[in-house]
Amino acid sequence: MTPRICLSPLMRSKRLSLLAAALCIALSACGKGSDQSSVMPADALIDAPASSQDKDYLDTISANPFCAHALGGIDGCIYTNSLEALWRSYEGGVRIFEADIHLTSDGQAVLVHGFKQNDFLKRIGEQYYPEGYKKSGEDYIPTHKEFMSYEIQGQFQPLDFKMLADFIKNHNDIYVLADVWAQDYDDTKKVYTAMCEACGYDPEVLDHIIAGGHTKAMIYAVKNVYDFKLLNLYYSDEIITESFTADDFISFCHEQGIQSYSCADSYFTVERFEKLKEGGLISYVFTVDDPERARVLNACGVDVIGSNTLRNF
User: Fold this and answer.
1) Whether 302 contacts 288, CB under 8 Å
2) Taking residues 34-45, what's their average pLDDT?
3) What's the pTM value of the predicted model, to 2 decimals?
4) Right CATH number for 17-307 from 3.40.50.970, 1.25.40.70, 3.40.190.10, 3.20.20.190?
């Protein structure tokens, strides 16, 4: 059974001396586990200067070692992206969140890992996956009204982006890393446009969204929709190739005003981390629920650790 969420209030440790003392040991253990087209669309904003670092955002990162993955685990459940998970994590002290965002069949932005068969079976609820789709296993994308009538995993209230935007306006000390998965330029633009329309292009909301994606094309799409202050690019073999190296990744981030990168824990190594750290990028590593592994990453200097259950050291 998935471990239950930690309810203790988040108390940030400023790089505890214990961890610092263990740094040499931790570094040796850091290496656990060991693009789309780069052609820029004509309407992409190619020469925008790098965004200035937002002090409130940097202060929040400094004070919060963990990010609530899919808004955080709740009552033994993960990937709910639900209202209850959002509240549980916030009341537990979390101020940095990751949320999965997709479009319904009528074009509304909602918080959900996806609409594939496996998402219904493991993350939404098997009862909502139509009988006629089970044989083919194809995606089933509900309408906004239909999705909002679901009880996620049989008990939780789903969220659309407007509800998340309202929460942000009422709790402006949080930041949300948006994950719309690896989509092409046009689809990415549709998702971010729907997000912006849902909140009326309100900067009080959008300045607290860490926008971005998995490819350069997604970054171009995001920037064409809205001038987001905070941008993130996923670091993996999806984008790193012989023709687009880590140095190219760093240069691209600087050119496009991208402040941070995220990567899977299995892709994290000391060499990769040090290279990107030297490039001045904020680091997010997902998804870590083992406290010892989290301590190792923290000792290595990782800025934010994405977790379903961990809230503090």
Assistant:
1) no
2) 45
3) 0.86
4) 3.20.20.190
